[in-house]
Amino acid sequence: MNTSRFFPLAALAMALSSAPAFAGIDKVYSPQVELGELELEMRGVHGLNSSDAHEVNFGIGYGVTQNWFVEGYLIGEKEDGNFEIEEAEIESKFQLSETGEYWADFGALVELEKKLEEDVWEIKAGPIIQKRVGKIVATANILLEQQFGDDKTEDEVEPLGSFQLRYRMGPSLEPAVEYYADEYTQAAGPVLLGNNRFGNSTMKWELGVMFALNDETEDATLRWQAEFEF
Amino acid sequence: MIRGLMTAAILTLAATASNAMAEVKEFKIVIKDHMFEPAKLVVPAGEKVKLLVINQDATPEEFESYDLYREKVVAGNSQIVIFLDPMDPGEYSYFGEFHEATAQGKIIAQ
Prior knowledge:
Distance between the termini of chain A: 63 Å
CATH class of chain A: Mainly Beta
Largest interface: A-B, 32 and 30 residues
Largest sheet of chain B: 5 strands, mixed
Number of domains of chain B: 1
Low-confidence stretches of chain A: 1-18
Number of helices of chain A: 1
Mean pLDDT of chain B: 86
CATH topology of chain B: Immunoglobulin-like
Number of strands of chain B: 9
Oligomer: heterodimer
CATH architecture of chain B: Sandwich
Structural class of chain A: mainly beta
Low-confidence stretches of chain B: 16-20
Largest sheet of chain A: 12 strands, antiparallel, barrel
CATH class of chain B: Mainly Beta
Helix content of chain A: under 10%
Strand content of chain A: over 45%
CATH superfamily of chain B: Cupredoxins -  blue copper proteins
């Protein structure tokens, strides 16, 4: 056997197998920001088929101004071993236009993520676009991702996107379909979104299943989110 | 596909920025003693309108309406602008989330 060929292939296979097969599935951000809103958030993605891999984000955020929302996350993952907090992230969302001011509503998202035990930094940034037609709300998040640091695994700027079509059926329950894509992942599926008020607080939740559209993606991935706003 | 969508999004943003906003009719709502004045505001149906919401109370209020798809906080003793999409004739409810017992209002499109 030609070992000089074998080892790079094996290393590539190991690198690919260590990346969750649903890494591109996350959430779809809306462009709106609320001044003074305090938000506690948990969201996760769980592989439903071949693996027990899952990822959970724990976040706390605050609406600093009418146009700027900042949120910090700790991100835990379980791939082959135990569930561990592996990354920290800070993200800023900017509302760039008043809702309804133009033919669509615009925002921007900037995320900075650090792997806690490796020298890998990742920055993601891009526009959020939302358009409402009657009871249908279409939202797109289109981001560019770049890694930095000595242990980085990607040199190139990578695009990733998420899209949601939501039907405004009523304030407490809305059905939607979502699509996610990045360098490896491509998935789409149905989502339910709920909104329950308790006095001046609101609990928002999302639950969906994304089905693979390519061979690299987990066949089915559960996506969930619970958000408390004060 | 993603790169194409990114290009389309950037072109859209540029087109929007260069497109002067059409003239929209402006209406005023005042928040005082945790109530909206006027509590019923008549606006033209079928066209976008601009609401100037002036909070004369010292405490913040949140203008919220599922019907109108709007949710925005107005700090105490300050004001905000809310654009409403063209509406079919009818009544559209809104309320102040921080003082819901008294802060209730309707937009009447006709």
